[in-house]
Amino acid sequence: MFQILVCEDDRAIRRLMATYLTKQGYDILEAEDGRQGYDLFTEHHIDLVITDVMMPEMDGFHLVRKIRESAPNLPMIILTALESYPDKEQGFLQGVDDYMVKPVDLKELHLRIKALLRRYQITVNQEIRLDHVVLNYQYKSCRIDGVGIDLTKKEFLLLFKLLSNPNVIYTREQLMNEIWGYDSDSYDRTVDTHIKRLRERIMTDDFDIVTVRGLGYKAVLK
User: How confident is the model over 181-206, as pLDDT tens digits?
Assistant: First the structure.
């Protein structure tokens, strides 16, 4: 279970977010100001931070800077009523990964949390975990419900690339250059052939590899 730290001085907003995210299966720690939030960060394992900007004791930007000193890759989302470009720029310069303006749509917040946690897992563990499929980059292994799937190295790299960035369209040329190399003698149909093999070998409800006519391919999570 992922543990999320929610820092928000407005108790009603904080409790609303905590209740909603708990129902989505997360373990939530609550802080009413930045200093309390930093104390909780130092005392517990935290997978993601959600923080308001304007808080007593320590504001959100200061909290982000402090956390970044010891956790450079930890996902963090700023929630604020400030929506001007300079305010957003300051947030990103402090090391924030995402920025949402209040009032926050909780369903959208959940989608952003899932995307950040997925990227964080890939960065830290070199692993992509879906409901049924697990890809491990270090060992170039693919498992579905615990059963190993025999993929060639190129098939694995192609699948890992697509699933690392769901919904992003990659042209055949991009995939060829990254996976086969700029100097490869392979041709565009090579990508099509490997995609066909992946579709035949990876039978799962977790995702689809979608052909985008005239462009290339993308992975779509279900």
Answer: 755 555 668 899 999 999 999 999 99
